[in-house]
Amino acid sequence: MSWDVVVIGAGPAGLAAALQAGEFGLSVLVLDEQPAPGGQRFRAIEAFEQRCLVNQAHLSNEDNHGATLTRAFRRSDITCLSQASVWDVSPGGRQISYLHQGRSYSIRPKAIIVATGAIERPTPIPGWTLPGVMTAGAAQILLRTSGRIPEGRIVLLGCGPLLLLAAQQLRDAGANVVALLQTTSLADFARASLHLPSAMWAPKLLLDGLKLFARTASNRTVSSVRGVKILGENQVRSVEYVAGSQSETFDCDVVLLHFGLIPNIQIPRLAGAELKWDDELKFWQPVTDDWQESSIENLMIAGDSGGILGAEAAEISGKLAVLKIARRLDAISESTLEKIGRNLQRERHRYAMARAFMDAIYRPPLDRFLPIADTVVCRCEEVTAKMIEAGVANGADGTRRLKARVRAGMGPCRGQMCSMATAAILSKKLGIGAGDIELATVRPPIRPLTIGQLAENALED
Amino acid sequence: MSAQRESIEIFRTVPLCFQGDMITAKEGEPVAAAILATHPDFTGKSPVSGRRRSPYCMMGLCFECLMEIDGIPNQRACVASVRMNMTVRKQIGTRSFSAGSK
Q: CATH second-level architecture of B3-92?
């Protein structure tokens, strides 16, 4: 049997898409890499809700919503494979290959909805490979999945709403947060104020953001931070930074980095979907139409993997992504498509308007954080900024040639951690826009796969 | 790493063998979380320089937490969930060809 739709990812976008497709009577398979549905926003939400219940702790409205969404999904008859890792989507998006319980399978669904969410923008700074350095998101995941908090003195560093949220959650859980170092400055707020009128379209979002900002502001918060170095030999010992004209050092055991989110576009890139560079937000995103369809027919992109709009908007784009598929399979009429579709498109637009305000405040400080000298850029192959610059001097004019010359992006992460920074260095050295830098090809398998698993791959039609 | 605030634990604790020592882990939590809690120093070494590394992203992207789990090398310990009686080893540099035949 061939599935009508395969949804990749069980976060807010994937769950909303799967439920919507199920409602239309389509056969749906959800492939999710995590052990339980919820994505990163609602990571391990079922266990978290249970922990809150037995400890009589308060579940936030957002988490409550996530728990409800996940429950609806569990109660539906949609097939969901947890801990299923998609290792390939063929060019043109016709075939998905994934690993599940040690075996590899290939399937050919009628349509694919990519809902792989966002990743934290990897930002190389001196010392970021030391044990004790993690992303702020990683700390949130630890807290959610196992109720653990990093031991010792914690410094949070970077920018973005998620950094503030992580600081708040860690403090609430009893973590020893000694400092919150923000790259955000007053100038960012001034620039953002131009977007304030449009942010009024989503007052709740705006209010939540301001509340969070007020709650995390304390004497341990430093703004306009630059010139950051993480110091230590085998382990984090301290963080050095410049604020104003002062250079300061904070002794600490753990550094949590966060420089905003970027779309996770590995699968659209594998499939060969057209991308566009957003020069304001400084990231690549797949080109999609009003119905979330990529440049490849029946390959839809929903949620943050199609552009960072947050969890609420992800549910909307998830539902939207199903409509054209349902229409083509004759599961809904043209008038249903138009009626539901236009409403969802309006709602999505509202979130996009509000997002512009936040994006303006938390613009990634990439010009001040361009890696130089001995800073490791490619963690897998330990390629430094200096080595990349030498590669450019030797004629590498894109990330593909750079990979061949200096091995940046050659390791197991497939360039996921270094490609943005590598492109930024190329852009600076070559004097061309980051959007004009040629990206290296993403090749399968994008997840570890043994020869044996490949040889025994089962093709299901 | 420790849960500093007193709370009722919902996870069942299970034994896990790490580097030949028995540690206590929570069933269902990421293997990387259990290892970090008891061995926060490092979980592996870079195949290039031999410098110490430990889990970075906890969501399957960075491959910094590659470990040998139940005899199979190159497993992302942040994606694997703790089950009863697992055996986990640090991966120092690249995987060895003698480790695991699966």
A: Roll (3.10)
